[in-house]
Design goal:
With 156 residues, the protein is an alpha+beta fold. The chain has helices spanning 27-43, 52-71, 114-121; strands spanning 15-20, 75-83, 86-93, 124-130, 133-141. Helix 1 runs antiparallel to helix 2. The radius of gyration is 15 Å and the shape is globular.
Length: 156
């Protein structure tokens, strides 16, 4: 898994959104809703519910936000960026401790699947220090929907 944990500078985004998060129950759902809206607006049919890339992105948002809440105190910022056909997501929390697996992935375990899912479903992911804590980021390719003429808007 550590092959994807490289320091990463956010891409120069065609579109970007930054949300300050409140420390409250339901923050994962809020982050999913914000991501769902961005996917739909930025990628059209390719970002619609039911599309594999959109569903993967929403699952990974849930995992990263939940892990921040569980292990990093609480997430305080969600950042979404679109560059071409790629969605870049970053979740920041106040713990400086980087995510690490709890040993080999074990499908029968009731938890501990987040990093495995990041590894399997993202195009790339990593963790960087940020303001005394950390930011966990990942990228998901969002290709045009099958049979659709939707393509990402040209970059500005």
């Amino acid at each position: 898994m550590n092959g994807h944990r490289v320091p990463r500078v956010p891409p120069v985004a065609a579109d970007a959104r930054r949300y300050e998060l409140a420390e409250e129950p339901g923050v994962a759902g809020t982050c999913r809703d914000l991501t769902r809206r961005a996917l739909s607006e930025w990628f059209g049919a390719a970002g619609a519910p039911g599309q594999v890339a959109a569903e993967d992105a929403l699952l990974l948002v849930s995992e990263v936000v939940t892990n921040a809440f569980t292990h990093g105190g609480a997430p305080y910022e969600l950042r979404l960026d679109r560059t071409g056909s790629r969605l870049w997501v970053q979740v920041s929390d106040r713990s400086p401790v980087p995510p690490r697996p709890r040993g080999p992935h074990c499908p029968s375990r009731s938890s501990g699947h987040g990093l495995y899912l990041l590894e399997r479903l993202s195009a790339a992911w990593g963790c960087v220090p940020r303001d005394g804590g950390k930011a966990v980021w990942f990228e998901v390719d969002v290709p045009p929907a099958p049979g659709s003429r939707d393509h990402p808007r040209p970059e500005r």
